[in-house]
Amino acid sequence: MVPTAQLDELLDKHGVRGISIATIQPSPDGCSTVVPQCAGVASGACAGSTEQMFDSTWLQIASLSKTLGTAFAIEYFTARGIPMDSPVNSLLRDAGATFQLTPAPGNPTEWADQVTLAQLTNHTGLGMHYVNGVPLSEPMPPVLDLITGTAETPAP
Predict the structure, then answer these.
(1) Rounded to the nearest 10 degrees, how much is the dihedral formed by the CA atoms of 127, 19, 143, 138?
(2) Strand partners, 23
(3) Is 88 part of any domain?
(4) CB-CB neighbours of 62 under 10 Å
(5) Global pTM value
(6) H or E stretch including 32?
């Protein structure tokens, strides 16, 4: 566990309003226990909020989903003998996908065919980190609209 004063200091230093950490601690019987620790306030978007962060506070998992997706991709492609340095567009074409990476206007056209699986997993291939989020109160758009954008909501 991180001392509360140290967590509060880190939150202030990095301008973060709240944090929730979970650690896995082994027990003598060979099982493990998940131990949560929270600090700061829960409503990061509300400047005056004093609602404390709890282990029951809902958070977006953001980069954890990338970690899980990367672990799956490595296992999936390795099991099929496909190296992680394989070009993505070639694999998409081989799979019969209609989607292809395309360069933004004014960028080199050869870029799209040089992006590899490894570059998708380590953020060096696309020059962007996130797809625009969708509020829970709105219906989820088609996945292709999220990654390619539309006239109303262009991809970042």
Answers:
(1) -130
(2) 35
(3) yes
(4) 11
(5) 0.50
(6) strand 32-40
